[in-house]
Amino acid sequence: MVDERIITALQIETGIIFKPKNTLIIFDEIQEAPEAITSLKYFYETVPEYHIISAGSLLGVALNKHTSFPVGKVEFLDLYPLSFIEFLVAIGQKKLVLLLESKNWELIKTFKQKFIKFLRYYYYIGGMPEAVYFFSINNDFGEVRNIQN
């Protein structure tokens, strides 16, 4: 069956033995392999003990090209980059967020330079969770650029 071949191939490629109910399989850029989209139905129906996530930046384009799709077997979740507020929280600046939420404009003006600094960071780092996460750990803009690339 299709899903057994995929699981076997993934185990060979990764060197990891998958354990049903404890394994999460992620198919990234799934639109690049239309057969993988179709296989989601088989996973759902024959091996539901495996947890599957598929992602694709151009998945909507692929679906509009008449790719076979497992209707009723898939849930969609749209993900977006972190907002500036989420970014501040992620890098440990929750107090600045609380200050913004207070709308105490006089006190907010006092920290104008801090807000500008972190806004510049946000412009450079962006809202990609992995880049933000690694920046929050070591403040390394070089590592951020490597992740972005």
Overview in brief:
This protein has 149 residues and is mostly helical. It has nine helices and two strands, in the order αβαβααααααα.
Overall description:
The chain has 149 residues and is mainly α. The chain folds into two domains: 2-63, no CATH class; 84-148, no CATH class. It is built from nine helices and two strands; from the N terminus they run αβαβααααααα. The protein has helices spanning 2-14, 34-46, 59-63, 84-90, 94-102, 105-110, 112-125, 129-138, 141-148; strands spanning 24-28, 51-55. The chain has a two-stranded parallel sheet with strand order 1-2. Helix 2 links the parallel strand 1 and strand 2. The chain is elongated.
Oligomer: single chain
Distance between the termini: 37 Å
Mean pLDDT: 84
Judged by helices, strands and strand pairing, the structural class is mainly alpha
As a percent range, the share of strand residues is 5-15%
Number of helices: 9
Cα-based radius of gyration, to the nearest Å: 21 Å
Strand order of the largest sheet: 1-2
The major beta sheet can be summarized as: 2 strands, parallel
Percent helix:
55-70%
Instruction: List the domain count as a whole number.
Output: 2
Poorly predicted runs of 5 or more residues: none
